[in-house]
Design goal:
The protein is mainly alpha-helical. The protein contains four helices and two strands. It folds into two domains: 61 residues, BFD-like [2Fe-2S]-binding domain (Arc Repressor Mutant, subunit A); 38 residues, no CATH class.
Length: 112
C-alpha cells in the first residue's frame, strides 16, 4: 500500500499515519482509534477498522484473530439530534431547563 493511501476516508487518515502510530507502540484498534480518530466518522469504522487491523497484523506479526474490534457503543435507541436542542431554556443554568413534550415522549420523565 502506498504511504499516502487514505485508510480512513471519514477522518482522512493515511496508511503512513497508521504505520507511524503502530511504530510508536499503539497496537490495538482501540488505541489507534483514540489517537487518530479512525472509526469516529460517519461510517463508524465499518471500512477502516478492517484495513487498520491488517496494518497492525503486518507490522506486529499478530494474527487477525488476536486483534479485537473496538467496542461499539450505539445509542440504546435512535434519537434525532433535534431532540437535544428542544429543551426550553429557562436560564443559563442547565438544571433549570424544561424538557419538551417530544423529549418526554421518547425518554419519559417529568419536569420538576
Amino acid at each position: 500500500m502506498d504511504d499516502e493511501t487514505i485508510v480512513c476516508r471519514c477522518e482522512d487518515i493515511t496508511y503512513q499515519e497508521v504505520v507511524d502510530t503502530v511504530d510508536e507502540g499503539y497496537t490495538t484498534l482501540d488505541e489507534i482509534k483514540r489517537k487518530l480518530r479512525c472509526g469516529m466518522g460517519p461510517c463508524q469504522g465499518r471500512t477502516c477498522m478492517r484495513l487498520i487491523a491488517r496494518i497492525i497484523k503486518e507490522k506486529t506479526g499478530r494474527h487477525l484473530d488476536e486483534i479485537l474490534m473496538p467496542a461499539s457503543r450505539p445509542p440504546e435507541k435512535p434519537v434525532p439530534l433535534g431532540i437535544f436542542a428542544s429543551y426550553e431554556v429557562g436560564s443559563k443554568n442547565a438544571r433549570n431547563c424544561k424538557r419538551s413534550e417530544q423529549f418526554r415522549s421518547i425518554f419519559g420523565g417529568k419536569d420538576e
